[in-house]
Amino acid sequence: MGKRLTQIATRTGDNGTTGLGDNTRVSKDSLRVHAMGHVDELNSHIGLLLCEEMPEGVNTVLVEIQHQLFNLGGELSIPGFELLKPEAVLALDEALAHYNAQLPKLEEFILPAGTRAASQAHVCRTVARGAERAVVALGAVETLRDTPRHYLNRLSDLMFVLARVLNRINGGDDVYWKSERIARRSP
């Protein structure tokens, strides 16, 4: 792994390049750097979500996700390296099953709204989808393992489910889309 930063203002990126973990330099607009940036942005949004009131179990899941996203960012920064393990995807599957079991079945589309915590979880969901697209784009031109793509896909699903959980704190509910087409079908 490359050198750890001991100072932040290195000025080495002033020419439009950045250093990867294997000590190579690439353009800051490369697909790899875009993917790393999207993962970093997602991790920051989850950090903001963690500032909100939530059940202890959700907090624990989100903190673990932050660590796994850091692993993913590290893996993206070192071409050919593996840091994010397939077990991390399984952990998301388990969390999805656990939290989905607590929720009523969806019969209508919901809006990305409700409590502030739920709304921030929806922001995390959309940022996770952007990170997934960036990883897919990188994988189209460079060899990547499947685990990063699977992890981000599952994570966006989990953030949707957690938004629904967070909307139910203190007896709340989802915010349902008022579709004119659906309203016309109702008796």
Give a verbal description of the structure.
With 187 residues, the chain is mostly helical. It has one domain: Hypothetical Protein Ta1238, Chain: A (Up-down Bundle), CATH 1.20.1200. Helix content is 59%, strand content 3%. The protein has six helices and two strands; from the N terminus they run E-E-H-H-H-H-H-H. It has helices at residues 31-49, 56-77, 86-100, 116-141, 146-167, 180-185; strands spanning 17-19, 25-27. Strands 1-2 form a two-stranded antiparallel sheet. Helix 3 packs parallel to helix 5 (146-167) and helix 4 runs antiparallel to helix 5. The termini are far apart. The model has no long low-confidence stretch (mean pLDDT 90).
What is the ordering of alpha helices and beta strands?
EEHHHHHH
| Approximate shape | elongated
CATH architecture: Up-down Bundle
Spatial order of the strands forming the largest sheet: 1-2
Provide a short characterization of the protein structure.
The protein is mostly helical and 187 residues long.
Characteristic key phrases:
elongated, mainly alpha, 187 residues, 3% strand, Hypothetical Protein Ta1238, Chain: A, two-stranded antiparallel ribbon, 59% helix
